[in-house]
Amino acid sequence: MSLTMLKGPYWVTVRQHRRAMWTALALGVVALVALVGSYLWSGHTADTLRAAGCTPGSVNRACFQPVREYLDGQWATRHLIEYTALGMLVLPALFGAFVAGPMLARELESGTYKLAWTQGVHPARWLAAKLAVPAAFAVVGVPLLALAFSWAWKTGPAHDYPTYWYEPTMFVSHGVVPVAHTLLGLAVGAAVGLLVRRTVVAMSATALVVGTALAVLAQVRPRLWMVETVTGQGGVDLRGAVWQLDSGMLTATGERLSWADCTTVQPDAARACMTGRGGVTDFVDAHPPSHFWPIQLVESGICIVVAALAVLLAFRLLRRRHG
After folding, report:
1. Is there a single domain that holds both residue 111 and residue 250?
2. Do residues 51 and 154 share a domain?
């Protein structure tokens, strides 16, 4: 949809915040270019290493420089991916703070909203426009960033300097969770902006609330889907990017014994300590990679429900105060 097709409060909202939107677009393009560049550089160093007839573990003196350049390139690529993931982590709070402050609280604080309402724009339609424009950016732009991140991450330095899908910053940077988190930030920002009606305070409060909500989600994330328990005598060998949550030994009656109980008492003979307490077989509670999408969908569903409640609260606040 072009800007010429926008009408009424939607066009006004875009015009009012076009600089911020262009800035956000520019930052998104920079992130995409950085991810593509990191992928190309990572591939270049790998090609150079293969062309020299070397491997990352080569001890031949002739391979010293190609191996060093390869490892340096892979390490730099991993850092870039981690920095991008950190940006994706804080994006919902930044998005919500922008909606709470410049888009809503500033207009309520300065009284400029009255101009729109005197031009025949109903308060509910005014708020809908304030939410629809950033929501469109979130629904269109964030998935593109998430896809680019996923592509660069999966084709990047996965073997030499691995990062795993269950790490907090990685999990929230690809899949559908980034969009759900951003919509949550938008909705919370709208409710806080209408409640506080002070620009700086609204931005700070929104960042705090959204940050707290995301921290709580990170803590409960392991319990959003049923874990798999793997058992085996003499140890459990889990291969691949498995998210291990707990491990220990089971007694003959099924009681769980934690390794921590023995490693602190007998660190050099932990297994003997566990068997002495009745342990007969090892167990590991874990999420395999196949649990990525179920956890993503459950967490996204929670965010969408909370976001819907926040939007409902925002409209109720608007109706209560302005009719």
Report:
1. no
2. yes
Amino acid at 140: V
Contact 238, 225 (CB under 8 A): no
Give the Cα separation of 299 and 287 in Å (integer).
Answer: 15
- Give pLDDT tens digits for 6-49: 566 666 667 676 777 788 788 888 888 888 877 787 777 788 88
Distance of alpha carbon 130 from alpha carbon 124, whole angstroms = 10
* pLDDT tens-digit series, residues 189-225: 999 999 988 989 999 999 999 999 999 999 999 999 9
**Residue 149: partners with Cβ closer than 8 Å, 6 or more residues away:** 35, 81, 84, 85, 88, 173, 174
Report the alpha-carbon distance of residue 153 to residue 82 in Å, rounded.
Answer: 9
Residues in the chain: 323
What total number of domains does the chain contain? 2
Q: What's the domain range around 280?
A: 243-287
Partnered with residue 279 across adjacent β-strands are 251
> One-letter amino acid identity for 318?
L
Q: Which H/E stretch holds residue 11?
A: helix 8-16
- Asked whether the beta carbons of 177 and 297 are under 8 A apart, the reply is no
pTM: 0.86
DSSP state of 240: S
What one-character-per-residue DSSP string does 196-212 give?
H--HHHHHHHHHHHHHH
CA 103 to chain centre: 24
- Structure token pair of residue 211: 């940050």
Residues 48 and 147 placed together within one structural domain of the fold: yes
Q: Distance between CA atoms of 156 and 173, rounded to whole angstroms? A: 15
Residue at 45: amino acid letter: T
Q: Measured between alpha carbons, how far is 310 from 190 in angstroms, rounded to an integer?
A: 8
